[in-house]
Amino acid sequence: MIWEGLDVERAIDLYGGIRQRRDVAATPMTESTEDARLVQAAQAGDRAAFGRLYDRYARMVHGIMLARVPRTEVDDLVQDVFLSALRRLPTLREAAAFGGWLAMIARNRAVDYHRHSSGTVELTEEMGGQKSLETQAKAVLAVIRTLPEAYREPLILRLVEGMTGPEIAERTGLTPASVRVNLHRGMKLLRDKLAGKGDL
């Protein structure tokens, strides 16, 4: 069976181009106050402050989009989300809520993408018969996308984007306990599905 001995995190880590991981310790609590300060500066017209927010939240938005739209569309949609956030930033009333607000914009943008896109089929190496680690990573990603939404997004943020549980909670506005439970249950579901997959 192809999945025996496959380290899911390693396979996804080798998935060319989508991993923007940086090894970081748990997000310090002072980060939310720094984010609020950056949001207020960006609302006052400071583009450099918005650039710092982009640097902090790009992985989160990338993961949210990767959980919901075809891989080939993710990068463009991430840019759309940040452009939309920049235009709508003056409407954000609570600067500390930026992460959850941005996550909601990303989720809504993914819904809009599906509402307005025509049915397309993403071409993959599997169609050519290649069984590389990248192909396996794409297959794992496809399995993650079949999981319930509550598990799909945290798993992609953890496994693909390399975010820690506390970082996911901080950035998305979810509670740490909720993220922890969803990651635990999602990983169990993912392992169960992969164990039943057999040879692809």
What does this protein structure show overall?
The structure is a single chain. With 200 residues, the protein is an all-alpha fold. It has a single domain, classed as Rna Polymerase Sigma Factor, Chain: A, CATH 1.10.1740. The protein has nine helices and no strands. It has helices at residues 8-13, 30-43, 47-66, 74-88, 98-116, 133-144, 149-159, 165-172, 176-195. Helix 2 (30-43) packs across helix 3 (47-66). It is globular and about 55 Å long. The termini are close together. Mean pLDDT is 80; it is low at 1-6 and 10-29.
Describe this protein with a few key phrases:
200 residues, mainly alpha, Rna Polymerase Sigma Factor, Chain: A, 9 helices, 62% helix, disordered N terminus
Number of domains: 1
The CATH topology turns out to be Rna Polymerase Sigma Factor, Chain: A
Percentage of residues in helical conformation: 55-70%
Distance between termini? Answer: 9 Å
Class from secondary-structure proportions = mainly alpha
